[in-house]
């Protein structure tokens, strides 16, 4: 089984919210883009909650998210997985990202959002203790997954569940280039 390598963090120095997935799916890894599967509702949810136009080209969507103070990353840097389902990740192969090492580059980071229960479970297992040791007040919010595997949750319901993100957003403005 092949070892999958995740993406680098998409953050800026003004990042207030970091959305963590578990590990990019096959479609995302192939495209080299976060949330690239056509049925993943992440970008439509970001449009509903953050005002980021889901039809923009990928680089512009990332820039717009960063302009609102939102960054993207995953809990796992590497793992072995057959297919795209989180349930297929081999636990003994899990290697977490260096989130503690990222914290100094994101001094305004105030909220970690886990996109789905798998991301929340992996965050708790691999990162939470080290992150809280460095940033005791850093909050974590687990929200329903935008993945097509979470088909029981409609786009409208996801947009409602993700509404708490709004209180953490920066007003629309220029992006400060980060990592």
From TrEMBL:
All residue ranges annotated as the Uracil-DNA glycosylase-like domain in the record: 8-163
Matches recorded under CDD domains: UDG-F6_HDG (cd10032)
Pfam families assigned to the protein according to its UniProt record, in alphabetical order: UDG (PF03167)
SMART domains, per the entry: UDG (SM00986), UreE_C (SM00987)
Protein name: DNA glycosylase
């Amino acid at each position: 089984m092949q070892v999958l390598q995740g993406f680098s963090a998409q953050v800026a120095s003004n990042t207030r919210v970091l959305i963590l997935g578990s590990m990019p799916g096959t479609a995302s890894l192939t495209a080299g883009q976060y949330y690239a599967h056509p049925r993943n509702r992440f970008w439509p949810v970001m449009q509903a909650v953050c005002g980021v136009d889901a039809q923009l080209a990928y680089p512009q969507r990332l820039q717009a998210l960063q302009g609102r103070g939102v960054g993207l990353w995953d809990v796992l840097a590497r793992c072995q997985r057959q297919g795209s389902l989180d349930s297929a990740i081999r636990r003994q192969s899990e290697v977490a990202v260096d989130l503690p090492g990222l914290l100094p580059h994101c001094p305004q980071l105030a909220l970690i959002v886990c996109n789905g229960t798998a991301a929340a479970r992996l965050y708790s297992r691999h990162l939470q203790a080290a992150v809280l040791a460095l940033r005791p007040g850093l909050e974590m919010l687990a929200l329903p997954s935008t993945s097509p595997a979470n088909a029981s949750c409609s786009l409208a319901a996801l947009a409602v569940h993700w509404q708490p993100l709004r209180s953490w957003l920066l007003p629309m403005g220029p992006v400060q280039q980060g990592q």
